[in-house]
Amino acid sequence: MYKLALIGYPLGHSISAVIQEEGLRNIGFEGKYDPIETTPEDLLDRIKYLKHNNYNGFNVTIPLKTIIPVFLNDIDEKADVVGCVNTVKITQDENLIGTNTDIYGFKTAIPKNINLKGKAAAILGTGGAARAAVAGLSELGVSQIDFYTRNIINTNKVLNFLREKFPQIKFNAFQIQNAKNLSNVSILVNATPIGMRGYMMDEMPISIQDLSTMSKDAVVYDIIYNPLKTLLMEHAEKLGLQTISGLDMLIYQAQKSIEIWTGKLPDANVMKIAALQAL
Ligand code: NAP
Questions:
Q1: What Å distances lie between residue 28 and 41, 133, 226, 275, CA to CA?
Q2: Which of 19, 27, 138, 147 has the largest CB neighbor count within 10 A?
Q3: Atom of ligand 1 nearest to the CA of 193
Q4: Catalytic residue (one of 51, 65, 112, 256)
């Protein structure tokens, strides 16, 4: 029986338990995945609790992804390159090993026929998900990433970190509120929560005017998964642009986490069906 958990705060909207338990069933394991609300102040006690109550591992979400690395025995290269951990394995000798499966999730959700080699990307937001997107886009060969942020000053620290980790990519940062010309961009990624159910669901992170500057063969990838079709995606589709929903990223990162905990990769399709029923 696998004992797994999700820690973060708030967890009210999470459908991860449904997805993870379906994934475990699919590879023939019984398992329980407990969402346990955890604030940064609770983190140390929560980790001790998970270690001493026979948990095999856990996922980490907002606002703990960048805080948790210092509490772990080791992190792998994936987590190190983005400074963010979303999956922790607890070994038999109670060591905690962190990794990042959001990168795999982000990248795997992009259809294989989309070629981003040598192309430019734009990312809205500079948080944990944005950094996973950078690593995923780097693996797909993009040569330029333009960030749009509400706080250029704070973004400089992130930019310096990313320039060091991804020297082959040219990074720029712009104010998200200003008008944008996105005609050179092959993929636009929304990595802000703007458009998410329960948080500015009726809004778009950029204007329709900005969106209409994109080339007709460009892709809009909204990593929000609830609603399945955000206002941004709705308008992108009206303009004839290809869209990708965050649900596939959510499923693939969960699939990879299960592989890390159990050594077996479940079928992403059955996990997606369970997710669609839960949404
Ligand atoms: P995060 O670390 O808190 O980062 C959020 C980013 O959005 C920050 O750069 C923040 O700017 C910006 N932002 C927030 N509200 C904004 C606003 N009103 N105007 C402009 N910028 C704003 O969060 P995260 O972990 O990256 O998650 C971001 C989104 O991705 C969430 O909706 C989350 O549910 C989703 N997500 C999806 C998946 C998936 O598997 N599909 C995985 C991870 C995350 P500041 O830095 O200025 O605060």
A1: 36, 32, 29, 19
A2: 19
A3: 32
A4: 65
Element (H, E) at 69: none
Q: What are the pLDDT digits (tens) for 197-228? A: 988 999 999 999 999 999 999 999 999 999 99
Task: Check if 8 has its Cβ closer than 6 Å to any atom of ligand 1.
Answer: no
Q: What share of the chain is helix, strand, coil (3-state, %, to 5)?
A: 40, 20, 40
Residue 180 token pair: 């944008």
CB under 8 A, 24+ apart: contacts of 236-239:
236/211, 239/211, 239/212, 239/214
Q: Report pLDDT digits (tens) over 222-269.
A: 999 999 999 999 999 999 999 999 999 999 999 999 999 999 999 999
Domain positions in the chain: 2-101+250-278, 104-247
Q: Which CATH class is domain 104-247?
A: alpha beta
Question: Which of 52-61, 108-117, 167-176, 193-202 is the least confident region?
Answer: 193-202
2-8 and 31-37 as β-strands: parallel, antiparallel, unpaired? Answer: parallel
pTM (two decimals): 0.96
